[in-house]
Batch of 2 targets.
Target 1
Amino acid sequence: MSSTSPSDAALAPGAKDTPAPGTPGRSSGLSINVRQSGIYIAFALIVVLFTILTDGALLQPQNISNIIVQNSYILILSIGMILIIIAGHIDLSVGSVVAVTGAIAAVLMVNYGVPWPLALLITLIAGALIGAWQGYWIAYFGIPAFIVTLAGMLLFRALTLTVLGNQGIGPFPDAVRTLSNGFTDGYFGNIGLGPLGGADLFSILLGIVAVAGMAIAQWRTRAARMGYRQAVDSLPMFLLKIVLAAAVILFVIVQLARFKNLPWVLVLLAALVLGYSLVTNRAVFGRRIYAIGGNLQAALLSGIKVKSVIFWIFVNMGVLSAIAGIIFAGRLNQAGPTAGNSFELDAIAAAFIGGAAVQGGVGKVVGAVTGGLIMGVINNGMSLIGSPSERVMLVKGAVLLAAVAFDVWTKRRAASASR
Amino acid sequence: MTDDILRMRGITKTFPGVKALQDVNLSVRRGEIHAICGENGAGKSTLMKVLSGVYPHGSYEGEISFDGEPCRFADIRDSEHRGIVIIHQELALCPQLSIAENIFLGNEQATRGLIDWNRTNAEASELLSRVGLHENPVTTISDIGVGKQQLVEIAKALAKKVRLLILDEPTAALNDEDSEHLLDLLRGLRDEGITCVIISHKLNEVMAIADSITILRDGRSIESLDMATDEVTEDRIISGMVGRALENRFPPHEPQIGEEALRIENWTVHSPTQRGREVVSDVNLTLRKGEIVGLAGLMGAGRTELAMSVFGRTYGTNISGRLFKEGRPIEARTVREAISNGIAYATEDRKRYGLNLIEDIKRNVSAAALSKLARRGWVNDNEEYRVADEYRASMNIKAPSVSSVTGKLSGGNQQKVVLAKWIFTDADVLILDEPTRGIDVGAKYEIYTIINRLADSGKAILVISSELPELLGLCDRIYALSAGRITGEVQRSDATQERIMQYMTKGLD
């Protein structure tokens, strides 16, 4: 809800799989904040459930890699979406923006032969401009985001069709495809892991560096808090959390190293999660978003530039949509007229499953990404056991409803407990 | 034996971890006005919720009998059926519906499922005349003032054939005139045989209207007083409420008044909704360092409007006039400019405009001056914790830690958080709008102490208050505002309630 813990950011590399439970530092005892850690426990249970149902196929190296790559664009969108939802708004246009930015990238690279780095830059700027367009109407003109982005959903889909001339455009240059679909090179060769076979040394070293970095950051945070005489987790609890997080990260990394090394999108995603967690927890800008979503009037009377903050989170959503658009198009090796259909719904669902509150003011980047992964694992797991798509949809709908119902229920319980 | 319409015996209500009510007894005689007094958190509202069935039978211990019959209400409908109607502090009216529709909300005058509008409006008119409200029943609720809305609530209760009317802080949002009218109405209802239970913080009001009083403290019933036989004074009630005799309701204070801090010259503000209407007219006002200045005025006099227009033009259009800070002209066109010029405004409605209730104490304290805790856009949250914790200690904010959510604090502690937030902006001029509204007596004293301390540290303070005794007890100098104009200025030594009231009503037709 209101965690200040920079630990979330430090935990971020674990976001690609179960991050360690809860946020350290809030409570001195063993009390577990159900609302905050419930999502991670739920995710762990879902992973365990599908691991059993699929006889372990879910956690096979190739499948883990697939889950990450297949869901990367939704996860990226959910990062932007959670910021907007925390501020008390919504964005229904992201699917169409994914389509139109993918189309712009394709036309630039394929039809006009623009070099790929320049084309990507132009695409990102286009995404920012789209976000600025919507942000202007919402923040400065005062039209509800629901309406502006509903209009945007139609506008940018129309623009996609115009840009593409109603047909798919491809193929993309190798560099773009590598970013979307490819893996890091085995720079240092392989090492043997006994019964597990060979694995990429570079990936494993990177994983170890990430774990060590996380542990050191957490330790320093804890030490700093103790220096300020704040309540922190007891040492065994702290170590337990670190070891759990480290185990999860290393497990995923080793599995990936045994397959084709690290997907580039995972590297990108880890960087985004880390960066945005820091922004939401520690940056003045991030704090403003929570303040606005928590009580708009109080934020205005506290001198917070509400309009500018709202404007920029929509610009940010535009840029993240452009990144997702490039990755999605690169993955299909084609920008198509129907790209990104209903992505907005997946991103919104991810944010709410991940603990965002309907009224705004509450939510976390890591939560939204976990919410996205929950849906990803359900999708993947159910298709592994051969469930028809209607059943997958049914389960996803039920999970979304259950997550929000749980949130409302815990809030009501908390309210009645405090009289 | 007295003829009691209501008896509550041994009521105990526990919430997880808290005993909200413990063995509370309450007897209300038929046809009396019975006041319930107690500090915030004493259990007044909880007791009324038990009585009205908000907390159903079985969720509490103890016996309730109404009219000699035992009651086991499952919900509010049950209790309303018996003629017990509660009117909450926050009015439960639909602003977009008409008066008549609101009166019969949930109790529609219908034949075979179709609403009979003629009957609805005719009966509404009749009820309105009973409560002395001369409005057309088809008028929309949002078009009438709070005072009249309160009367609509009472008409609504009458429509339900009320026999025991419970009013929770009915006059909290009303000006003196509307309050007086409401109290008269309650006396009239009493004479018609309707029993009233009134919860109020305003002790003068309780003294004026109640036939008997029950005092609650910390979830227990302390004593019941009969106004006719017991010798009841405000001090007696207060000592029952706080469990100690308050020597004085205001802490002693020797002002150290210095240089001029803020001067407002020829300040005129127009209404943002009604074209051409001046809400504040040609106001001149001076605040000095170390001085606590009061701003008195009836509701609608333009007090809050004046304050908010000065604070970054957060109210009003077409604002003219000049501001001087320590003699130098300044601009405060936005909240940020106002804050950077050392002006702070603590709102009268802390829940709606002052606090982010879902956030914790420390983030509320830092909200208006977060840049002080940040370097290159990054917040040092350990410093934030330390700063907030210092305020928690120095202002005696009662909370387990500064990571506690503000929405769960009591009104007095929430107000302290609001004050801490504005003190942390390093403001030299603090405008405090109704700083003790809805706060119990003990916490009020603490807030007054904080205000005195701020003045002693050289801050200039403007206190806006509807309670004249508060202004008289706290302020060194008082301005009276009437219909947007300053109609008088009184030094503490010459100030009397009568004199200020005269100024406050000057120029009103």
Target 2
Amino acid sequence: MQRIGVFVCHCGTNIAATVDVKAVAEALKYEPGVVVSTEYQYMCSEAGQELIKNAIKENALTGVVVCSCSPRMHEATFRKTVAAAGLNPYMLEIANIREQVSWIHKNIEEATEKAIILGRAAIAKVHLNAPLTAGESPVVKRALVIGGGIAGIQTALDIAEAGFEVDIVEKNPTIGGKMTQLDKTFPTLDCAACILTPKMVDCAQNDKIKIYSYSEVSEVKGFVGNFDVTIKRKARYVDENKCTGCGLCTEKCPQKKVPNEFNLGLDNRRAIYIPFAQAVPKIATIDADYCTMLKSGKCGVCSKVCTAGAIDYKQEDSFVNEKYGAIVVATGFNPIKLDKYDEFAYSQSADVITSLELERLMNAAGPNGGTLLRPSDKKHPHRIAFIQCVGSRCDDGKGKSYCSKICCMYTAKHAMLIREKYPDTEVYVFYIDVRTPGKNFDEFYRRAVEEYGVNYIKGMVGKVLPEPDGTLTVRASDLLNGTQLNLSCDLVVLAAAIEPDKSARPLATMLTASMDTNDFFTEAHPKLRPVESPTAGIFLSGACQGPKDIPETVSQASACAAKVIGLLAKNTLKGNPCVAHSDELLCNGCSSCEKVCPYGAISYSDKEFRINGKMVTRRVASVNPAVCQGCGACTVACPSGAMDLNGFSNSQIMAEVDAICKW
Amino acid sequence: MQEMMKKKAIELLGSGAVARVLGWKKGEFDYDITPAVFESIEEIENEFIYNSLCSPNLSKYLVKESRKEGKTLIFLKPCDSYSLSQLITEHRVVRENVYAIGIECYGKTDADTIKEKGIKGITKITENDGVLNIETLYGNEKVPVYEVLRERCVNCKSKKHPVYDELIGEEGQAVDDCERFSEVDRIERMTPEERFAFFRGELSRCIRCNACRNVCPACTCEKCVFDNDASGIAQKAASDSFEENMFHIIRAFHVAGRCTDCGECSRVCPQNIPLHLLNRKFIKDINELYGNYQPGENIGNRSPLTDYTQNDAEPNIVYKRGGKDNA
């Protein structure tokens, strides 16, 4: 029989306001095996931990139950506490009476009852706990950064700076991400390319950084400190080692009608292309969807003009296997598609554009060489309307419920730049609220209004009507003046909401990293562990975790690098002793467990057994404890119950369920 | 057919190519056919039977027989071949020790099904050219086999043999317009209360004889959880009738994604409980959620339940299907 101590935490008023903690401690006192049951205001505090240690020594406890917050929060803390008092750290169980009770219930009686039940379940489990000892596993001192935008670049540069090797996997032919498409950046109005391209070059020149461009992560195995990643290198039909980036092929290619994604389809590129002049790596790529040679075998112009002999029409996708200690997700964002917003005539009129398209129209390297001309007739627009929150802060199901965060500032920037360069152009901004917190941000917006005479109108636009004369009538309400407006404009710019890149969801599944309902990656703790995923060894950088502007992205990217460096600096990691094992006498050798094991920890061998006096050879499973991560998938896949998990055994789980059901 | 099979069996046993033959012989009654292991030519000559009453699926016997010295010859109907293929996939049968002869099948029947037609007092059944000559205490009756097929044969899913070394007769094809899910459809359309009442009613007849488990080719565990005291669900006096019903629910979960729908569970049930409906519901759900999947169709197949693809149904499918909203 275990001698169990129960320690109920108030968590200040976090728990105590909704749960009668004294009643919980009193009720649990009479559970079998409980020799001491008490409560305290902050069990995780120095004094609280002392209380537990003393109780263990005074009562010769063999098991401890702490009723407190989620084990995610303080299990590690209390394991250390009981270990300091001489117990095996795995003789501790946590009953989560905060996240699962006090925070989600209002009625004190109900909450108290539930807290007692969860306490009973934890006590029932402790009775079956056994001391466990963790092994150690080595750390591969190399990091993988998925996504080569400003977030991925900054994280990679910082990790490399600390002396560790780091690989960037970028799905596009060049790194740089969304920032390469921007014109100027707020609040200082320096040009995006001028501050980004040197960093791209730094990545390329850093001997610790390896860039896999035009590549995707196709498979991830392993665990923190020891990930095994397969990278798919998409065929670009150009030998990366031979191509000098001279660009001759991109001038001679006869296929000229390929929509240029770098300029958001506002102009065309060739079938063989380099996205932009400062691309890193500066290597041409053949677009297989448009290349005449690849489609019909009749052309070969690029191959003829290439003096380096780099064109290879027979190139195929190849796969690279690499081991990493840490993985950084930096998959970034995209503006949403606007097909659900017909009221703004985005698909009807070429002169209704998104803000990112405006960036390209105003950019010196853009389709108009930096002169702002309407897409339809290439004339100067004289009145421009900006519509804010298109798809952001929506509760109608069409858009996103969240604020995209960057639109207020970039719209102020656009308005200001247009008024600066074309003083004869009137600019109207329709907004719900203007949100410009941040260093020098509100001053920036005030400048747009006060110095540049941008007309900010509080109110949403109901409809944009393309007129026969080529103008656009913007129908809106001015909430402050209580009037309806019919504004005749030449150009309408929509601040489309941003959303996580579509590649993030399948990647999250591969990494077993959790996501929120909007497909943003979830952080381990929203305040205290903002750059780590709840999955050990997976880190978050940039807008994949939530909408962010450039300064914030770069800060987070560096923070993320600091966490990665902290991990890679270790030689070994303490493993998790809660691993699976198979009962060879029950094992059928059916391979069900092997099929569901995400870590490849299970192998089979033929073993001899003496059964009823006869020697029988049977195929049985065994688990490699250094590779097993204790997810438990095998234990539920096993039809005969041969697989069991240390610390979460089938009998322990059933004891918990029984304890809950008996109530 | 029977004679061709006998000839083949005698030839292989006589040459020493196989050490034993798995087939059928008559049981307590003429019409009560039972699986049998033949180890001598005499046994085969005198006892080996093959006719439309040879319902039993022999594949499960290979779990033990294929571990013995020498090869085992087995005759496989298409249904049994699916079971064998699945058993090989699960490493339960040693393939090298098996010589499998696929035999064509046009559906099977048995005394129970014949009795359902109102024919009583059966004393002997013989078969000639697809027609059963049924001798009863009240006289003889002639019934074509196709009129008394078991449900699983009426709704035959396939006449193909996923695994064999040799075929007697023509290789068939999977049946495209098989309607085996129509009964599941009907049950799905019930309200949850009706459905619960339906299964409670059917399962209330269970006497826990374990025949369904013992015959099931997917139930080959070295030690069944129901026989394992440590499992917490071992055979014992159930505390109430619902706990008794759980036996079948747990079994259906254990064979989900592995059940080939051979229908043996319902065939052997002495209480005529339509147990195959539980398994078919799983098969139907798997087909709908993950795309058509037939366990045993190919050796080495990965069941959608123990495989992961990016197109897999998201867990919230539970809320979209079933659940209270759908009631």
